[in-house]
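We modelled the chain as a single entity of 317 amino acids. Its sequence is:
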Amino acid sequence: MKKNPYSPSKRRLVKIKRRISGILSGRKKSLRMNLYLGDLFNTFEGQPTLSQYYIVARIIEADLVRREIYDKSYGEFIARAARGMENSKEKTIHTMKMYRGFLEHLDEVGFNPDLGCLSVASSADGIFADDGTHRLGWLYWAGIKYVSVSLDDRAPKYPLKGREELKKGGIDETVLSELDRAFEEIRKGLHGELLVILRDSVAGEIPALLSGKGQLEKITLSNSSVNEKVRENEIPEEIWRLYYDYKDCPCHIYTLKLPENRLWLRDGKLHSVAVEEITKEIDRLTGTKSWGYIANSVTESLGLRECLSRLEHDYWE
């Protein structure tokens, strides 16, 4: 059996070193926000990260334990391949029953976002959840689409190329196929669109350019068209500023679904690598920076869409 490189004492030491490094650097290291779950399912170079495989495993297990199936743990399949950890059948059953108790407790008392804030690593490679996979499993089945997170400016704890890591560890191909299939199904259900606002005066060839980047659809906003309601006090100030910038000018509204949308924290805000590249192309095409706006994340899109939908739909063509 391989030696476990992720012992509790080593994890604590790594956390202490990260805190000290953050203090010494003097940089802002985190941002607290409510994040749409779909923004946690952007892949790295076309494959799930190891942490995303763990999230998928917990979602599968949440379904298994509710059906009183305790002798199969996908999280253990991953841990065995990635870390060399292996439990007895009795230990697996005990762990899965504990998970069911955890889920039933959350069913009864609900989820407290102030106590259950997830740590999410943010780097140029993307944003990825490092912990709270069991809580994410419950949130998914409870139909709660937002989670309170702390975005930390650091590298992720787990390897980014999850499939390669699991294959290297000798995971069963059938199990890996089941995890991949579940990941794609979950991601498809959560994969939202980015809101695009184009000023009427400069729209021109922009829709054709955007159609080459992903699925573009023109929409009409009205109160009845908004499915994801965001309370006013949960909408960040920057989104309200965008709302006031565009609420009185003739604009066209679109949604854009990108195949990949790598996010990272910069200057206290989530940025999209793909959107920044598209924005530069549009700047060159139009010769102006006042052509409109593309939301960076689905989280930002839903907040902005909620703001704009409060206007009469006659403002929008």
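As a brief sanity check on the tokenised model: The CA atoms of residues 194 and 298 lie 6 Å apart. DSSP finds eleven helices and ten strands in the chain.
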